[in-house]
Design brief:
Layout: H1 2-60, H2 62-70, H3 73-82, E1 85-90, E2 93-101, H4 113-125, H5 131-138, H6 153-156, H7 168-181, E3 206-207, H8 213-220, H9 224-231, H10 247-253, E4 258-259, E5 264-273, E6 276-285, E7 290-297
Parallel strand pairs: 3-4
Antiparallel strand pairs: 1-2, 2-5, 5-6, 6-7
Helix pairs in contact: 2-3, 4-8, 8-9
Length: 298
């Protein structure tokens, strides 16, 4: 009997130790999780301060003010040539700031009947089915009470945003659906990072001094070689005549809103601290001295 009691006591002791060990382990896990959340919140707080500081720097920059005062494409070209890539550090944050033209790419929210035809032709030239463009149209057309969409995308993804293409992640959702629905991997032929710009603003113009090779290829439905030649003339265009376009190219270009001077910057910030990183992008209007269209990616 005494032996049985001893065995029971030992078993109870072992169970007690196991329970304590599990409790301590869970407690430590919660502490680590809480510490991680605090560190992440601190990182986000510091990131927000940096963004505010960067906007203030842009607002007080003499070089940017020179562009506003000169109000010429030449002044903007000089700025973008000199300040395209700026690494620095602040309060333990490693920061890389990139500045480009915010009007170098096409906003798919601006698709209309004419530009839709041209985009379908561009896609066909890159071996992508024209149905892909119909899926894009579904994602910028808003909610339709009669469910008269071009595709099944909202059957598969009922909560997908459909007022405009909001981000590269949103586009990836669309691209993944197309690839699966049509068993077609041809979208790898398209460099979407250099083709599309994501914004709800449909009243924007392409700056022909900075549009990418991919955009030239799309808007003119021309060859990649021809598009590369036009892109190489960056900063040198002041009139349509400078582009030396043929009649078909001129007709296609007329379908788009464009100009030769859009003093709006696309600012990208890469923030890194203790293996945590984030990416923030926004527009900066040189004339209005105002930032907008802020996008945060953690």
């Amino acid at each position: 009997m005494q032996h049985q009691r001893g065995a029971i006591a030992l078993l109870i002791t072992v169970m007690f130790v196991i329970v304590i060990t599990v409790a301590i382990g869970f407690g430590l896990k919660q502490v680590n999780k809480a510490s991680s959340l605090v560190a992440e919140e601190n990182f986000m707080y510091q990131s927000q301060i940096i963004i505010e500081d960067v906007v203030k720097i842009l607002q007080t920059s003499k070089d940017i003010q020179l562009v506003a005062d000169a109000n010429t494409s030449d002044a903007l070209f000089i700025l973008l040539s000199q300040a395209g890539f700026i690494p620095f550090e602040s309060n333990g944050l490693e920061i890389v700031m990139k500045i480009k033209s915010a009007r170098a790419k096409f906003n798919p929210a601006q698709l209309d009947s004419n530009t839709t035809i041209l985009l379908k032709q561009f896609m066909n030239n890159n071996r992508v089915n024209s149905e892909y463009v119909d899926i894009l149209l579904d994602n910028i057309g808003g909610i339709k009470e009669d469910n008269s969409y071009n595709s099944r995308i909202f059957d598969e993804k009922p909560y997908l945003f459909r007022d405009y293409i909001a981000s590269s992640k949103h586009l990836k959702e669309i691209n993944d659906f197309y690839t699966k629905e049509y068993n077609d991997n041809s979208l790898v032929n398209i460099d979407f990072d250099n083709l599309f710009y994501y914004s709800s603003d449909t009243n924007i113009s392409l700056d022909l001094n900075y549009v990418t090779t991919e955009v030239w290829e799309m808007i003119l439905t021309t060859s990649k070689e021809r598009a590369e030649l036009l892109s190489a003339g960056m900063g040198s265009y002041t009139t349509v005549e400078d582009l030396a376009l043929n009649d078909d190219e001129l007709k296609n270009l007329s379908m788009y809103k464009y100009s030769f001077f859009e003093p709006i910057l696309f600012v990208e910030l890469q923030l890194t601290q203790n293996k945590k990183s984030s990416r923030v992008t926004f527009e900066y209007d040189i004339k209005k001295k105002k930032g907008s269209n802020f996008v945060y990616e953690i």
